[in-house]
Structure formats: structure tokens, C-alpha cells
Amino acid sequence: MTTDASSWRATHAEPWARTVLQVLRTPYPYASQHVVEGPDSTDADPLRRHPAFWGSFDWHSSVHMHWSAVRLLTLAPEHLTAGTREALVALLDERLTADAVGAEAAHLRARPTFERPYGWAWAATLAAAAADAPLPRAATWARALEPLADAVADALLAWLPRLAHPVRHGVHSNTAFALALLHEAYGRLGRGDVVEAVEASARRWFADDRDYPARWEPSGSDFLSPALCEADLLRRVLPADAFEPWLAAFLPGLGRAGDPLLGVPEVLDRTDGQAVHLVGLALSRAWQLRLLTPHLPPGRRRRVAEATERQTAAAAGETVDGDFMATHWLVSFALLAATAEEA
């Protein structure tokens, strides 16, 4: 996967879009996050419980594959066939209605820990993408998504003051990853109160961190690098003159020869949903490394660029031709990696 903007569009936009359509139209298997609270709350049918965000194996993946659909229509419409463009718009028209998304918002308000924080972050990111999209139908999608974005904002503002410590795992519970997406999304949506709360929490938890042990990564089911998630969040909330010395102290070996964060993770079983997370790790590393590269000493930047090319190339096949445990979500992270240098 090349970093050249026009090349990713020409090479990947159409197969990525077809993959989005395929997985969002696949209702099963589906991993419900439904907590059974009594004998009358056992209905976990995704099509009934989640009228907007079913398909794509689980709620959060469905949300961010909808985001992928919006972004592909926004960034690469000329590289999609007419049939694929029409199918993406039709799917979004079908799912992102006031009634369907209103039901999702009500579900979250009734269950304020549902999909916290990863699903929250992607829901807000989808709302921001729809609000930004210069598409004829996007304004309708954006209006439908407003109640969901508001529900996430309320849940987040209630949660952050009660969270004593961040979660540093390399999976969905990672606090820094979610806060980075939420910070950007609510900045675009004009919610300064949410942005300020995220910044305060990020500084409280991470501003004094030093000498991260990058050699300990990855764990066996990581799709995120805890080190790079934290660095990317601080990149967003600190001014550049404060961030660059922080980064040098936090990851002094970033971009040097032998840096473990530049490697391609090894995957031994690509049908195992946990093991295949490591394919996503290659993509999320590439995305965050590209965002961090301008803050590195010039001598390290070429090494990082070469590493991110290897990481995205290693994941390219699994993104569209892999097992459903890979294809149901990887397009979103491939898009993040491909567009990092355009951000």
C-alpha cells in the first residue's frame, strides 16, 4: 500500500468499498455486547436491537465500517464505479435514518457503559465525518447522527472524572486511542466542552510519562500500540514546542534502528479473531507513525517511512481477501493509514 494519495485511491478505493458493502450486509456471525439483566432481556438479535449498526460482526465494527463508507464517498468518489457509489449511498440512506440512529442513541443512554470507550469514539467519528462530507445526502445522515453524538458526549463527560487511571491495553479498552478520536471528532462538531475535558484528562494521565518500554510490545491480541496511542493523543493536546521534548523522553528510541514499533507483527492463525488483531496492529502502527513522523529528527524519518510501507503491504491482502474475522473491520484502519499524511 503506497503512501501516495492518488495511488491508494486508484488501487484500493473500489475493493475497499466492495468489502464495506459485503460485511455490512452480513448479519451473522454477530458478537452481541448485550448484558442480560433478567429473563425478559434476552433478545440479542442484532437486526432488532441495532437497526442502524448491525452486520460486520459487532456494533463498533459496524459503526466504523459505516465511517469507511462515508470517507470513501468523500475522498475517492471518482475511483469508485457508479454501481458501488450508488450502493454505498443506498446503504447509508437505509441505515442512517432518524428512527434507526435514534434507537441506537436510546440504547446507549439506557446503558451508559455500552461500547465504552472504543464504540463511543467511532460513533462520534462517524458523526463528524458525515457532518464534514460534501455529499448531497450527507446532511441527512449528519442530522440523524446528532442524537448519538450527543449521547456519547454526555456519557463521556460523566465518565472521565470518575476514571482514576487510563487503560493501557492494546485492544478496545485502550483509553488513549479513544480519546484521540473523540478529541478530533468533537473538535469538528464544535463541542469545546468535550475537547477541553479530553485534553485535561490526557494531560493528567500521560504528561509525566517517560521511558516507555517499547520492547514489551506487542501482546498476542493487540491491534493497537499502547505506546503510539499515547504519543498520538499527546500530539493532539500539547503544543508542538512541548510535544517534541515529551516524545523524545517518552519514546527515545522511536525511529532508530532496531525500534520494535517499526516491525511487522507475526500472525500464525489468520482465522482466529484475536490473532488477526495483529494484522490491524500493522495498520494502526503505520497510521500513528505517519502522524508522528514530522516530530522526529530528520535522520529517522526515512526509516519510519520504509517501515510503514512494509506494515501496510503486509496487511493489504487480509483487508479485502482474508477471513471474515479480518475483513469485517480492517478497511477502516487501512483508510486511516493511507490518509495519515493528508490529515
From TrEMBL:
Source organism of this protein record: Microlunatus capsulatus
Designated name of the protein: DUF2891 family protein
UniProt superkingdom: Bacteria
Any one Pfam family match given in the protein's UniProt record, by short name: DUF2891
